[in-house]
Protein backbone atom coordinates (compact mmCIF):
# COMPACT_ATOMS: atom_id res chain seq x y z
CA UNK A 1 0.00 0.00 0.00
CA UNK A 2 1.35 3.43 -0.92
CA UNK A 3 1.31 6.45 1.39
CA UNK A 4 -1.27 7.96 -0.96
CA UNK A 5 -3.56 4.95 -0.51
CA UNK A 6 -3.01 4.95 3.26
CA UNK A 7 -3.96 8.62 3.57
CA UNK A 8 -7.07 8.12 1.45
CA UNK A 9 -8.06 5.11 3.57
CA UNK A 10 -7.61 7.11 6.78
CA UNK A 11 -9.69 9.93 5.31
CA UNK A 12 -12.49 7.49 4.51
CA UNK A 13 -12.23 5.77 7.90
CA UNK A 14 -12.40 9.11 9.72
CA UNK A 15 -15.80 9.67 8.13
CA UNK A 16 -17.25 6.17 8.45
CA UNK A 17 -15.81 4.50 11.54
CA UNK A 18 -13.61 7.10 13.20
CA UNK A 19 -9.86 7.11 13.62
CA UNK A 20 -9.38 7.27 17.38
CA UNK A 21 -12.75 8.67 18.39
CA UNK A 22 -16.19 9.27 16.95
CA UNK A 23 -16.72 9.06 13.19
CA UNK A 24 -16.75 12.53 11.70
CA UNK A 25 -20.04 11.74 9.95
CA UNK A 26 -21.75 11.40 13.32
CA UNK A 27 -20.07 14.06 15.45
CA UNK A 28 -22.59 16.71 14.35
CA UNK A 29 -25.43 14.56 13.04
CA UNK A 30 -27.58 14.87 16.16
CA UNK A 31 -26.64 18.46 17.04
CA UNK A 32 -29.43 21.01 16.59
CA UNK A 33 -28.97 24.65 15.58
CA UNK A 34 -29.17 25.99 19.13
CA UNK A 35 -26.60 23.48 20.38
CA UNK A 36 -24.36 24.22 17.41
CA UNK A 37 -24.49 27.98 18.04
CA UNK A 38 -23.86 27.68 21.81
CA UNK A 39 -20.56 29.07 23.09
CA UNK A 40 -19.06 28.33 26.49
CA UNK A 41 -18.03 31.99 26.71
CA UNK A 42 -18.17 34.97 24.32
CA UNK A 43 -14.51 34.69 23.24
CA UNK A 44 -14.74 30.95 22.45
CA UNK A 45 -15.92 29.28 19.26
CA UNK A 46 -19.15 27.34 18.88
CA UNK A 47 -19.59 24.01 17.14
CA UNK A 48 -21.15 25.99 14.28
CA UNK A 49 -18.09 28.20 13.91
CA UNK A 50 -15.73 25.22 14.06
CA UNK A 51 -17.66 23.34 11.37
CA UNK A 52 -17.72 26.46 9.17
CA UNK A 53 -13.96 26.81 9.68
CA UNK A 54 -13.32 23.19 8.71
CA UNK A 55 -15.57 23.52 5.66
CA UNK A 56 -13.83 26.73 4.56
CA UNK A 57 -10.35 25.15 4.69
CA UNK A 58 -11.55 22.00 2.95
CA UNK A 59 -13.03 24.08 0.14
CA UNK A 60 -9.83 26.13 0.01
CA UNK A 61 -7.72 22.97 -0.26
CA UNK A 62 -9.95 21.65 -3.07
CA UNK A 63 -9.52 24.94 -4.95
CA UNK A 64 -5.75 24.76 -4.63
CA UNK A 65 -5.64 21.10 -5.65
CA UNK A 66 -7.55 22.00 -8.81
CA UNK A 67 -5.09 24.79 -9.58
CA UNK A 68 -7.36 27.69 -8.67
CA UNK A 69 -6.03 30.80 -6.99
CA UNK A 70 -5.62 30.99 -3.23
CA UNK A 71 -8.26 33.06 -1.45
CA UNK A 72 -6.79 36.52 -0.82
CA UNK A 73 -5.68 37.04 2.79
CA UNK A 74 -8.10 39.90 3.36
CA UNK A 75 -11.03 37.60 2.52
CA UNK A 76 -9.92 34.74 4.77
CA UNK A 77 -10.57 36.35 8.17
CA UNK A 78 -14.35 36.72 7.80
CA UNK A 79 -14.63 33.17 6.43
CA UNK A 80 -12.38 31.48 8.98
CA UNK A 81 -14.61 31.14 12.09
CA UNK A 82 -17.76 32.98 11.04
CA UNK A 83 -20.65 33.56 13.38
CA UNK A 84 -23.89 32.27 11.90
CA UNK A 85 -26.00 35.09 10.46
CA UNK A 86 -29.12 33.41 11.72
CA UNK A 87 -28.68 30.16 13.67
CA UNK A 88 -31.71 28.47 12.13
CA UNK A 89 -32.26 24.75 11.67
CA UNK A 90 -32.21 25.25 7.88
CA UNK A 91 -28.90 27.12 7.93
CA UNK A 92 -27.37 24.51 10.24
CA UNK A 93 -28.62 21.69 8.00
CA UNK A 94 -27.01 23.41 5.00
CA UNK A 95 -23.68 23.67 6.84
CA UNK A 96 -23.82 20.00 7.88
CA UNK A 97 -24.48 19.08 4.24
CA UNK A 98 -21.46 21.15 3.16
CA UNK A 99 -19.34 19.33 5.76
CA UNK A 100 -20.26 16.00 4.16
CA UNK A 101 -19.92 17.33 0.62
CA UNK A 102 -16.42 18.65 1.30
CA UNK A 103 -15.38 15.29 2.66
CA UNK A 104 -16.31 13.59 -0.61
CA UNK A 105 -14.98 16.54 -2.65
CA UNK A 106 -11.50 16.19 -1.18
CA UNK A 107 -11.46 12.43 -1.56
CA UNK A 108 -12.30 12.87 -5.24
CA UNK A 109 -9.80 15.70 -5.74
CA UNK A 110 -6.95 13.71 -4.21
CA UNK A 111 -7.93 10.59 -6.16
CA UNK A 112 -7.81 12.61 -9.39
CA UNK A 113 -4.60 14.46 -8.39
CA UNK A 114 -2.43 11.99 -6.42
CA UNK A 115 0.34 14.55 -5.93
CA UNK A 116 -2.11 16.55 -3.80
CA UNK A 117 -2.02 13.95 -1.03
CA UNK A 118 -0.10 16.33 1.32
CA UNK A 119 -3.20 18.54 1.40
CA UNK A 120 -5.25 15.61 2.67
CA UNK A 121 -2.58 14.62 5.19
CA UNK A 122 -2.64 18.13 6.67
CA UNK A 123 -6.43 18.18 6.74
CA UNK A 124 -6.55 14.83 8.55
CA UNK A 125 -4.65 16.34 11.46
CA UNK A 126 -6.47 19.68 11.25
CA UNK A 127 -9.92 18.15 11.14
CA UNK A 128 -9.16 15.58 13.86
CA UNK A 129 -8.15 18.43 16.17
CA UNK A 130 -11.39 20.28 15.50
CA UNK A 131 -13.55 17.17 15.78
CA UNK A 132 -12.02 16.77 19.24
CA UNK A 133 -13.08 20.32 20.07
CA UNK A 134 -16.60 19.54 18.89
CA UNK A 135 -16.69 16.43 21.09
CA UNK A 136 -15.68 18.55 24.08
CA UNK A 137 -18.32 21.18 23.31
CA UNK A 138 -20.88 18.37 23.10
CA UNK A 139 -19.80 17.15 26.54
CA UNK A 140 -20.06 20.68 27.97
CA UNK A 141 -23.69 20.68 26.84
CA UNK A 142 -24.36 17.25 28.38
CA UNK A 143 -24.81 15.70 24.95
CA UNK A 144 -23.98 12.00 24.67
CA UNK A 145 -20.82 10.94 22.94
CA UNK A 146 -21.35 9.75 19.40
CA UNK A 147 -19.34 6.55 19.21
Task: Describe the secondary-structure layout.
Elements (H helix, E strand, L loop, with lengths): L2 H14 L16 H5 L9 H19 L7 H8 L8 H24 L4 H24 L7
Helix pairs in contact: 1-5, 1-6, 3-5, 3-6
CATH architectural arrangement: Up-down Bundle
SSE class: mainly alpha
Beta-strand residue percentage: under 5%
Q: Over all CA atoms, what is the radius of gyration?
A: 15 Å
- The secondary-structure element order is HHHHHH
Largest sheet: none
Low-confidence stretches: none
Count of discrete alpha- or pi-helical segments spanning 4 or more residues: 6
Give the rounded overall mean pLDDT.
91
Q: Tell me the helix content.
A: 55-70%
Number of distinct beta strands: 0
Q: The CATH topology, please? A: Four Helix Bundle (Hemerythrin (Met), subunit A)
Instruction: Estimate the global geometry from the Cα principal axes.
Output: globular
Task: Provide an overview of this structure.
- This protein is mostly helical.
- It has one domain (3-140): Up-down Bundle (Four Helix Bundle (Hemerythrin (Met), subunit A)).
- The chain is 64% helix and 0% strand.
- Helix 1 runs parallel beside helix 6 and helix 3 packs antiparallel against helix 6 (117-140).
- The protein is globular.
- The chain starts with a helix and ends in a 7-residue tail after the last helix.
Give a quick summary of the entry.
With 147 residues, this protein is mostly helical.
